[in-house]
Amino acid sequence: MQKRRLKLGLVLDPEFYILEKSVTAVTIPLIRALVAHFDTRIIYNQETYDKFCTEVDFLVSFEPKWAAPVLNWRRAGRLRRSLPSCPCYVIMSDPHIEQWREDYFLRQKLDYILALYYQPMRTHFRRVPKDRIVHFPWAVPDEWISRAEIFFHGQEKVAIFGASQSDAYTLRNWCRQQPGVESYDYSGVENKVLEGDEFFKWLQGFDAVIAAGSEDTKYRLTTPKYFETAAAGSLLFAQDTDDLQRLGFEDGTNCIVFSKANFRSHVETYLADRANEDWLIIRKAGREFIRKRHTIGSRLSMLEVHVRQWQGRQ
């Protein structure tokens, strides 16, 4: 028997979507996929929240203040009874900033944080119980991942790109200065030249790409670059992070894991024999790894299972 399509109340600032304010290539496709997969009502202010919150099976808010309005979820005080019996989720990224979000989550008595970064979220949001943090890492649109043959382009350097003007990028900026590295100033934060699948097609043209941020324990984030690079079929040089093993990135199997201490030796080994078939094997494994575990489709399936399990416990 086919299950009834779940009704979603999606809390979202329309301008964030229409003006494509996201600094990552994969966020807008995620919004589109959520709307298409579920029977969706868009909630963009307190009025629309109050109108639709009793009509849905679950509520998901994008990042409050940045991509979604800050709401009174009516889970406390005299209006508490007006809230429906459904799970309330809020998507949160960089947990080292905007600390007010922890108070917001707890004060509003929300059910779950959909955490783009799991261990960093646990580190910085210490008052949130472990079972209320659901790992919801970055994911790549299913249709972006090609099945075409991966081949060696003949490039003589390893590529690196992304923002630079923050302490969160100290290792990235150091990598930029090392021999054998070609730096590009494209960045969703500081220099948004390419968007969406246009960015992804550009990324597919590289043999090898570095994903790095900072080794400071305050950061160590597994950013979208990790997933995008592997999905594009490029060889991923992945800075070790707190979530890397949890996510399934494996050194020598689907990526090359590095730290500042061994970065140069890894790059030298690659460049000394960059046409070796073994690198293509890792690139192919990386792309298949993302296809199997880190697509937007897989995230929606996980979310739906989580909601239905919640319903089953009520």
Topology overview:
Elements: E1 7-11, H1 14-18, H2 27-37, E2 39-43, H3 46-52, E3 58-61, E4 88-92, H4 100-107, E5 112-115, H5 118-124, E6 133-135, E7 158-161, H6 170-176, E8 181-184, H7 196-203, E9 208-211, H8 224-232, E10 235-239, H9 244-247, E11 256-258, H10 263-272, H11 277-293, H12 296-313
Parallel strand pairs: 1-2, 1-3, 3-4, 4-5, 5-6, 7-8, 7-9, 9-10, 10-11
Helix pairs in contact: 8-11
Biggest sheet details? 6 strands, parallel
What is the CATH superfamily classification of the largest domain?
Glycogen Phosphorylase B
Low-confidence stretches: none
At CATH level 2, the architecture of the largest domain is: 3-Layer(aba) Sandwich
E-strand count: 11
Shape: globular
Q: How many helical elements?
A: 12
Q: How much strand content do the residues show?
A: 5-15%
Based on secondary structure, the structural category is alpha/beta
- Number of domain modules: 2
Tell me what you see in this structure:
By secondary structure, the protein is α/β, with parallel strands linked by helices. The chain contains 12 helices and 11 strands. It has helices at residues 14-18, 27-37, 46-52, 100-107, 118-124, 170-176, 196-203, 224-232, 244-247, 263-272, 277-293, 296-313; strands at residues 7-11, 39-43, 58-61, 88-92, 112-115, 133-135, 158-161, 181-184, 208-211, 235-239, 256-258. A 6-stranded parallel beta sheet has the order 2-1-3-4-5-6, with helices on both faces. Helix 8 (224-232) crosses helix 11. The longest helix has 18 residues, at 296-313. The radius of gyration is 20 Å and the shape is globular. The model has no long low-confidence stretch (mean pLDDT 93).
